[in-house]
Amino acid sequence: MSLITWTQERFATKVAQHDDEHKELFDLLNNLHAKVGVGERNSIGVALDSLIAFVAKHFASEEKNMSQVNYQEFKQHKEEHDSLVKLCLNLQAEFHAGLTQINEQTTMYLRDWLIRHIPSVDFKYAPALAAGGIK
Ligand SMILES: [Fe+2]
Ligand SMILES: [Fe+2]
């Protein structure tokens, strides 16, 4: 069973580009969660790397759009992104150094972060982005 499912009601920001990226993020997180279930270290590493690369790409994409329209809450939003990226990069380095495991606690933490961040933080940029012509 999937760890997280994108639905219009819960997760639509109304910015098509970012909705598509969120769907991709959910797919990559579900993939990592499935690999954790199997327990094979190499494929967990590959899934982890893909997810983290896409997290960075998605955050950069939101930040580019927010700064383009001089979004007022850019700074606070970027701080949330930066703290998750820092956590992910530490986790990734420790995992590849054999110092830590990726388990269901990790994937559930990431799921909970997304479940909170998208509706409470991402949703707020929609009017500013729309006013700036980004939909
Ligand atoms: Fe987002
Ligand atoms: Fe965000």
Describe, in short, the structure shown.
With 135 residues, this protein is mostly helical.
Describe this structure in words.
The chain is mostly helical and 135 residues long. It has one domain: Up-down Bundle (Four Helix Bundle (Hemerythrin (Met), subunit A)). Helix content is 75%, strand content 0%. The chain has six helices and no strands. The chain has helices at residues 8-11, 16-38, 41-68, 74-96, 104-120, 126-131. It is globular. The N and C termini lie far apart (32 Å). The relative contact order is 0.18. The structure holds fe (ii) ion (2 copies). One fe (ii) ion binds next to α2 and α3. One fe (ii) ion binds at residues 18, 22, 58, 62, 118, 122.
Task: Lay out the secondary structure.
Layout: H1 8-11, H2 16-38, H3 41-68, H4 74-96, H5 104-120, H6 126-131
Helix pairs in contact: 2-3, 2-5, 3-4
The whole-angstrom Rg is 15 Å
Secondary structure class reads mainly alpha
Distance between the termini: 32 Å
- Name of the CATH architecture: Up-down Bundle
Mean pLDDT: 97
Please give the CATH class: Mainly Alpha
Write out key terms for the chains shown:
Four Helix Bundle (Hemerythrin (Met), subunit A), binds fe (ii) ion, 135 residues, mainly alpha
